[in-house]
Design brief:
Blueprint: H1 7-21, H2 26-41, H3 44-54, H4 85-102, H5 117-123, H6 141-148, E1 174-181, E2 193-198, H7 203-216, E3 230-234, E4 261-266, E5 279-285, E6 288-294, H8 301-311, E7 323-327, E8 348-353, H9 360-363, H10 371-379, E9 384-391, E10 397-404, E11 408-413, E12 430-433, E13 437-447, E14 450-458, E15 463-470, H11 472-489, H12 492-521
Parallel strand pairs: 1-4, 5-8
Antiparallel strand pairs: 1-2, 3-4, 5-6, 7-8, 9-10, 9-15, 10-11, 11-12, 13-14, 14-15
């Protein structure tokens, strides 16, 4: 029994209730400090009376023990109240009662009345389910979809449908690619087919996915069932296949390539397929010439003119035709753009601006094209690297790697520099677009083991030269390769460079003529 006027008993009860119901242990820490301060403020009489009243059989006082709580041992079920045995037994009885509801007890009774064999036979009559009449119920949605898409069942590329990423956009990494189909004809060839593939698919899997979607959409003509008969090429935005680069490697993952436009091309090296011969049309212009690849002799001259204007960076599409085509052997006679190439009886033409004529120099026939020269021109756009030395202003050299392709020229310093160059400024990597290249000239060739050439390019409205040295064979190959690229592109930077060079030469000539004239008068 506890009296309400005994503060020690009430304090112990409150402390014990808070400590046992608090899992964090914060109450115990607060109450201990509060009890110690409270005992210091209590008068000695209250403490003595409290000690005398609580003194009993043990004979020990509880004055100092009031500020301490019972030790609490933690376990796995700390903070969770254990269920009593009665509650566990009631739960077990409830489960047994639910299981008994599922079972039904039937009392067996002996049959008093006797029945005949015929009556017993009618109780369990045998039924024949083979002659069941067909049910004319509602047809399922799956059956309707299967009837509407019969080609899905006969698609030979069904194994590649798992790489279709249209249903995984937003959940898994996918890649959207526009694919031009070179086997189609007419207007269908000009419009790409959008394919969404999984990012982890290989190029071979993407080819199979394109064939699967092509067959599922019912396009014509039908494809070869062998996926290895096709390859993927880089394509322009208008669907023109970039033949300067080889097809994508079939074993490489598709996420390795950042192209958003590709073209599905049939491999003509497959068994049973004849190889197509490439035809090139030569288009002469004021700053050089270009070779236009065509598929057949049935192509119209209008398409050849459009391809020639597209290759010329300075030509822009306007409201009317700005250029016309003329046969190289027939100057000032425009070619009918609606006629085919087969009716022209030549593969060499001249691109002339409207309302202008060709001069005497351009009317002269050029020498015939050598097939080896054409091959060198075509291979000049392929990437190739050379290890040469770059000459700086102070005549010290730096080993660099010169990479040349049809799009740009890259100059990368070699990491293993000589010890003598560590005190100078190291060469930084340089990337020059092919449209900014102006000239590539051979400066000197002292011996087969030493030659120097100069590369001039446009940088911030100023022409900067770069000098390189190496053996004569390498230098001559580089100069020939770069000049082939310059002649095929006919950039405006190169035309402006030669125009400025010609103006300087004319001023120099006029100045020397005036000087000679003055000296003659004297």
């Amino acid at each position: 029994m506890a009296f309400l006027d005994n503060p020690a008993i009430i304090l112990a009860h409150i402390r014990q209730s808070h400590v046992t119901s608090d899992d964090t242990g914060m109450c115990e820490m607060v109450l201990i400090d509060h009890d110690v301060d409270l005992e210091k403020r209590l008068p000695s009489s209250v403490t003595g009376s409290a000690g005398s009243e609580t003194q009993g059989e043990g004979g020990d006082t509880q004055g100092c023990d009031l500020s301490q709580s019972v030790d609490i041992t933690s376990s796995w079920d700390f903070g969770i109240r254990r269920r009593s045995n009665t509650a566990q037994r009631l739960e077990r009885l409830r489960k047994e009662r639910q299981n008994q509801i599922k079972c039904k007890n039937i009392q067996w009774k002996e049959r008093n009345t006797s029945q005949s064999v015929e009556d017993l036979g009618t109780l369990f009559e045998k039924k024949d389910f083979k002659d069941r009449p067909a049910s004319y119920g509602k047809q399922s949605t799956l059956s309707l979809r299967l009837e509407q898409c019969p080609q899905q069942l006969n698609n030979p590329f069904n194994e590649y449908s798992k790489f279709d990423g249209k249903g995984h956009v937003g959940t898994t990494s996918t890649k959207k690619i526009d694919v031009y189909l070179s086997m189609q004809s007419g207007q269908e060839k000009l419009h790409p087919m959008t394919v969404v593939t999984m990012a982890n698919a290989r190029v071979q899997d993407l080819i199979g996915l394109i064939c699967w979607q092509y067959t599922s959409e019912g396009r014509e003509p039908k494809l070869n069932e062998n996926v290895n008969a096709y390859c993927l090429h880089i394509a322009e935005d208008d669907g023109e296949v970039d033949t300067d680069f080889p097809p994508l490697d079939s074993n490489e993952p598709i996420h390795k390539f950042g192209f958003s436009t590709l073209a599905l091309v049939e491999k003509y090296s497959s068994p049973g397929l004849a190889a197509k011969q490439s035809l090139f049309v030569r288009i002469n212009a004021a700053q050089g010439f270009s070779l236009i690849p065509v598929d057949s002799m049935k192509v119209t001259m209008k398409e050849i003119l459009q391809k020639a204007l597209k290759k010329r960076k300075g030509s822009q599409k306007g409201s009317g035709p700005q250029y016309r085509l003329e046969k190289q052997s027939e100057p000032n006679v425009a070619v009918d753009l609606e006629c085919t190439l087969e009716r022209q009886s030549t593969l060499e033409f001249c691109l002339v601006r409207e309302n202008s004529t060709r001069g005497e120099e351009s009317s002269e026939e050029d020498p015939p094209i050598d097939i080896t020269t054409v091959q060198d021109m075509l291979s000049s756009h392929h990437y190739k690297s050379f290890k040469i030395s770059m000459i700086h202003k102070l005549r010290f050299t730096t080993d660099v790697q010169l990479g040349i392709s049809g799009e740009k020229v890259e100059i990368d310093p070699v990491t293993n520099q000589k010890a003598s160059t560590k005190f100078w400024i190291r060469q930084k990597p340089i990337s020059i677009d092919s449209d900014l290249l102006c000239a590539c000239d051979l400066v000197e060739e002292k011996s087969p083991s030493h030659a120097i050439f100069k590369l001039t390019y446009l940088s911030s409205h100023d022409y900067k030269p770069l000098y390189f040295e190496s053996d004569a064979a390498t230098i001559n190959e580089i100069v020939l390769k770069v000049n082939y690229i310059l002649e095929s592109r006919a950039s405006t930077s190169r035309a402006d460079y030669f125009a400025q060079k010609q103006r300087k030469l004319s001023r120099r000539t006029s100045f020397s003529f005036q000087k000679e004239k003055k000296s003659g008068q004297q």
